[in-house]
Write a structure and sequence with these properties.
This protein is mainly beta. It is 0% helix and 49% strand. The strands form two sheets. A four-stranded antiparallel β-sheet has the order 1-2-6-5, with no helix packed on it. Strands 3-4 form a two-stranded antiparallel ribbon.
Length: 89
Amino acid sequence: MDEWGRPIPADPVVKDAKVVEEQKLVKNARGEDIQVAYTVYLEGVNAVGMDDWLMYTNALDIEIRIEVKHYEIRKYLGTDDVKEVVLYG
């Protein structure tokens, strides 16, 4: 927090991810259908929130800002070990 009580943005972090560019409908946490254009797969444990966003450089070398609209934490079957975090934006 700064001296005015506003949150300070986090430092950028570079991560490897698989990004799928396709339009589809997914259900958010409230059960509403939302349209997304990007699905981002991050391997392992990753801290994610609804106010996060990602910068992605596509194959045409264009930077795209992806706002997180929904995310899922997928675990290995029968364990609490996190396999991947999937972001929809």
